[in-house]
Amino acid sequence: MQESSLLRSQGQHPSHSRASGVLRRMCYTASAMRRLRFALLLLCVGMAGHLLGCGPSAPTSITAWITPHDGRIPYTATIYCNAPEGFFTFELPDSTIGPQATSSLDVTVDSANWNAKVIWTDGETTLWDRVTATANNPRPTILGVRINGISNLWQLEPLERTLIEVIVDYGDDWRLTSIAVEGSASSAPFTVFYPPYEAGVCHASWNGWILENAAIVYPVYASIDTDGLPYTMSGIDVGYPTSYRSTNKLYDDWPATKEGKLEIPAQDGLITVTVEDKLGRSTTKVFAIPIQACDFFR
């Protein structure tokens, strides 16, 4: 009765108050429904994204490395791979390890240019990277060359059959791969022979012996071009062709006199030696040597 009186005194009818409360409850309910619908929408979007594969993206690359990456072979090293969980396969020079769940592998490096391939997969994506390792073993040291088997002979005589031996200091296997000889007054390098000829072998026949890691040269002689092996000046370089005609293209470097005398001037010579160790690494050294003058009739 007092409440009604109070409401009447304020000019508000009781039915208006009840209607206002109902309206507030309806507004609250509508707001809650909107929030619920929004939450359900987010849930549906998330589920759809999951079904469509919209999650953490797959990696686009992996990184592999080997440590140590150089040493005196053979040496032990470890390959590592930075990649998500998955399976790893290691393709080594002489074998394949894996697939395995472990992302590292102990290996033995036994060559100068050792390399391996690391393959990672998670069952859907496959990626790979490559690692390399090298050798720091000492290389052969070329001490010098010996002319005609004589230690203190240090000059070249034009057109004479000359033996060149290589002197190397090395505690392991090595081989001569090439010798080049040239003169400062000659237009082309001199032809080098390795008799008896055997493809890929540098040796020389001398006084009935076959000397390894050696060569034969005729200073200031360069064979004319051929379809095969060069012409030799003598008939004792087994495996090389000979000819009755002149085969030295360097004769044109020095005009002959009216009497037919050819004057070959003294010149500075260079002997370039290249050797290779068992790891396939090359070492080259150049030696300066004088070449004597020579006069002769053609």
Short description:
The chain is α+β, with helices and mostly antiparallel strands. The chain is built from two helices and 19 strands.
Mean pLDDT: 85
Principal-axes shape call? elongated
Number of helices: 2
Structural class label? alpha+beta
Radius of gyration based on Cα positions = 44 Å
Q: How many domains, in number, for the residues? A: 3
How does the major sheet shape up?
5 strands, mixed
In spatial order, strands of the major sheet run: 2-8-7-4-5
- In percent terms, what proportion of residues is strand? 35-45%
Estimate the helix proportion, in percent.
Answer: 10-25%
Low-pLDDT residue spans: 1-16
Assembly type: single chain
Compute the separation of the termini in Å: 153 Å
Q: Which sequence of SSEs, written as H and E, runs from N to C?
A: HHEEEEEEEEEEEEEEEEEEE
Question: How many strands in all?
Answer: 19
Write the SSE topology.
Layout: H1 2-9, H2 14-51, E1 63-67, E2 70-71, E3 75-82, E4 87-91, E5 96-100, E6 104-109, E7 113-121, E8 126-135, E9 141-147, E10 162-169, E11 174-183, E12 192-193, E13 203-206, E14 209-212, E15 214-217, E16 261-264, E17 267-277, E18 282-291, E19 294-297
Parallel strand pairs: 2-8
Antiparallel strand pairs: 1-3, 3-6, 4-5, 4-7, 7-8, 9-10, 10-15, 11-17, 12-15, 13-14, 16-19, 17-18
